[in-house]
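Regression test case RT-17, inverse folding.

Input:
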């Protein structure tokens, strides 16, 4: 057990005595009366004096009276034993320098304290000046080689000036270490901040809709500003926030959290107080973020017409490096918002073209209505019902109107024949699956590549009796299986040139009957599980006309 681990009462008030005239010659100059402990009224440098001789504490205080370093005074703290010093060091980690005696409770109490400071407390910052009145007990070279100390002084050699030099040199070393440590912490914090920026940016780049985008950037911004906070009186969490977009002069909340959560979709004028509105107007006018101690407004500025703000109501005062990181995040958000707008525009254009091409088939077949639109919605519902990811289901929804595109290569005399087709005509009609596939195969667009699969396989049957290749079961791509069920369900319930629409009960009985024959059994089960959704689409876009053949 170390000497300072013994159960001893901790001395809080140093015992001050006058130094005897024959005491080792320490500070041989005559000294004034001891002024007592110094009262510190400003930020100071904590210096720990560890010695079991009260006179040493007194003369050390007198020698260092009035000393300042970098315009800051010294705070002198006394410990009469290694045990007492250890208790002080455990309770505070801001001690800059320790003036440490070797022989106290035991002959090596000071040396054991050095080991405890460096190893047990893992304190590498504190500068340790070892002072001894008995150099023979702890030879200088041996001590410096063995122990992690910063200076070694014999008390007989330690005059006032030498003590002053030793303390100021140690303080300078300590200050340099703290500066390096602070710089490292700043670098680490900036690195963590940059990683959060990268992670946040990569997350929002994956968002598909403007509303999800707005909610995503709001969540990410709050995570950046409050990443290391768990709330509490010293660091409360934000009251809330919102992401708002400027649409033709009207700023509308697309996403919100906390106290603002119930204001989604409202105009900014109906939500914020005058001070917050003034900050938001300033951000929009000056094209920059605006920060106060209790709220933050970040600007989202896209180059292609999108402008918005991120507002956080909370204790968000930022240091300049943090402000730069958050501004970087907002700049990335602006880029992401631009990309989202362009992507949505491209997808909207692509979807319009696909619907128009699907409509061409309806027009050539002398059919009216929304067959391709209904089939698109049915395929989306079924795709989600069997667990396909949202993005994949959306692609399938976009591609499905092209399932019959191959009919553009079928003669009108066959396509619009009001009677049953003969065998040759039936074979010609069946060629539309291969024609559609050949038209779309090799396209770079993912939607068109999916459409090529649908065109080729939506007439294949689960039992292998379909065409054009007679695929069976899971040999048929899941996209083809989904579209087959959606297409036949809609076709049977729609009027066409060669037949009248079946009533809904007949159609549903047919779907049940064809479970495991024409249709994937699992898809049929999911179809009936989600029939309320499917029927809602049928009624919304229903008009009694379809656009699929049952050849």
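Golden output:
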């Amino acid at each position: 057990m170390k000497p300072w681990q013994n159960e001893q009462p901790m001395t809080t008030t140093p015992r001050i005595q006058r130094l005897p005239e024959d005491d080792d010659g320490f500070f041989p100059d005559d000294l004034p009366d001891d002024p007592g402990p110094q009262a510190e009224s400003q930020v100071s440098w904590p210096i720990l004096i560890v010695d079991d001789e009260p006179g040493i504490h007194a003369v050390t205080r007198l020698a260092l009276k009035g000393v300042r370093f970098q315009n800051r005074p010294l705070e002198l703290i006394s410990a009469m034993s290694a045990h007492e010093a250890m208790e002080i060091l455990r309770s505070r980690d801001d001690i800059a320098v320790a003036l440490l005696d070797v022989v106290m409770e035991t002959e090596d109490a000071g040396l054991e304290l050095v080991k405890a400071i460096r190893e047990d407390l893992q304190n590498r910052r504190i500068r340790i000046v070892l002072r001894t009145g008995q150099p023979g007990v702890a030879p200088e070279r041996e001590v410096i080689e063995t122990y992690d100390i910063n200076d070694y002084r014999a008390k007989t050699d330690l005059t006032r000036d030498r003590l002053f030099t030793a303390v100021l040199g140690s303080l300078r070393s300590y200050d340099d270490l703290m500066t390096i440590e602070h710089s490292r912490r700043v670098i680490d914090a900036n690195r963590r901040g940059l990683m959060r920026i990268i992670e946040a940016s990569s997350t929002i780049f994956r968002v598909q809709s403007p509303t999800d985008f707005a909610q995503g950037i709001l969540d990410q911004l709050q995570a950046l500003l409050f990443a290391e906070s768990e709330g509490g009186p010293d660091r409360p969490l934000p009251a809330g926030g919102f992401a708002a977009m400027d649409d033709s002069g009207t700023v509308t909340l697309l996403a919100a959290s906390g106290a603002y959560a119930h204001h989604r979709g409202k105009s900014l004028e109906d939500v914020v107080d005058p001070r917050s509105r003034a900050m938001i107007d300033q951000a929009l006018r000056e094209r920059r973020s605006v920060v106060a101690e209790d709220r933050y407004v970040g600007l989202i500025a896209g180059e292609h017409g999108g402008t918005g703000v991120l507002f956080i109501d909370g204790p968000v005062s930022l240091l300049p490096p943090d402000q730069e990181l958050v501004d970087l995040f907002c700049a990335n958000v602006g880029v992401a918002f631009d990309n989202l707008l362009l992507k949505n525009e491209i997808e909207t254009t692509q979807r319009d073209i696909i619907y128009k091409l699907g409509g061409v088939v309806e027009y050539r077949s002398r059919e009216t209505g929304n067959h391709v639109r209904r089939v698109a919605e049915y395929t989306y519902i079924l795709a989600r019902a069997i667990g396909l990811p949202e993005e994949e289901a959306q692609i399938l929804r976009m591609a499905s109107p092209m399932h019959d595109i191959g009919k553009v290569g079928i003669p009108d005399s066959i396509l619009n024949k009001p009677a049953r087709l003969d065998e040759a005509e039936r074979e010609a009609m069946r060629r539309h699956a291969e024609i559609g596939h050949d038209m779309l195969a090799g396209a770079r667009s993912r939607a068109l590549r999916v459409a090529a699969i649908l065109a080729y396989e939506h007439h294949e049957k689960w039992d292998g009796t379909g065409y054009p290749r007679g695929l069976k079961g899971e040999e048929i791509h899941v996209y083809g299986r989904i579209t087959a069920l959606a297409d036949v369900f809609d076709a049977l319930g729609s009027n066409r040139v060669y037949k009248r629409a079946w009533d809904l009960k007949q159609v549903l009985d047919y779907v049940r009957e064809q479970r495991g024959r024409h249709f994937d059994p699992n898809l049929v089960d999911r179809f009936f599980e989600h029939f309320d959704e499917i029927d809602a689409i049928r009624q919304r876009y229903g008009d009694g006309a379809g656009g699929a053949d049952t050849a």
